[in-house]
Every structure is written in C-alpha cells, then in structure tokens.
C-alpha cells in the first residue's frame, strides 16, 4: 500500500469494504469482485446501486430485532419472524416495513400484555357459558311446548274418533 497514490489510499480508507490484495489489485469483500488499482473504476463501482445496496445491508443492525426476528432454518437466505410466523427478505427496508407493520405490532402487543389477553378470554368464556345456559333453557322450553302440543293433538284426535 506504500506505492499507491495518495488519492487512492484516501479512497480505500473511506471505503472499508475495499481491500488491497497481494497481487496489486483491489477486492470488494462484499461480493468478491476484483478491480485494478484505478481510481476512476473504483469510483464508478462505489457509486453504483449494487454496491450501495450491499453496503446498506451490512451496515444495518438486525440484532436489535433478534428475539423475534431470527435466521430462518428452512430458508437460509431469509429471516423468520417468530411472532407473525412470516419469512422476511434480508433487506433492511423489508425488515423495517415488517416491524412497523400492523400485524407485527398487534402480535407484539399481545406478547407484552398477556394478562389483558387472558382477561379478555375469561370474559368471553363467561359470556359463552351464559349464552350456552340460555340456549339450553330455551331448548328445554321448546321441548316442553312440543310435548304439550303432542298431548293436545292426541286428545283432539281421540275426541274426533
């Protein structure tokens, strides 16, 4: 690196993913591309969309969402959300979109406040039990009415004879 021009040295210091190899070439550690020691070509590569996308992916801190978003065991190139049971692409904007989404926030809210969810379930079961009791009472009354109607029908038929 001693015999490189000063502007090329400064450029390499500003871009940590570009490293000088033993055979006087520059290698990108993100995708493995090798370049000659030409500043114009390196500037063209670093200003491209592919390099920018690769850099943004490596600079993003995925570990901040780690308890819920983890490496997928079935699809190793994707993440998996344990709360929503969804696979996510390994791109920062996909992860951010999912984390800021309605489904993730709702699942996270249920996880953080299980007491509220349990209380709501208790209220529902009480209401369900009351409704079942009412339904059973109504069915019994209907059966009694049907039985009374059958008795009346039999008596009417006997009188006709």
Structural descriptors:
161 residues, alpha+beta, three-stranded antiparallel β-sheet
Strand content: 5-15%
Which regions have little confidence, pLDDT < 50, spanning 5+ residues? 117-125
How are helices and strands ordered from N to C? HEEEHHEEEHHH
Order of strands across the biggest sheet? 1-2-3
Helix content: 55-70%
Helix-strand makeup class: alpha+beta
User: Which sheet architecture does the biggest sheet show?
Assistant: 3 strands, antiparallel
- The value of Rg in angstroms is 35 Å
- The span between the termini is 121 Å
Coarse morphology: rod-shaped
Query: What is the quaternary state of this protein?
Result: single chain
Please tally the helical runs, counting DSSP H or I stretches of 4 or more residues.
6
Residue-averaged pLDDT: 79
Number of strands: 6
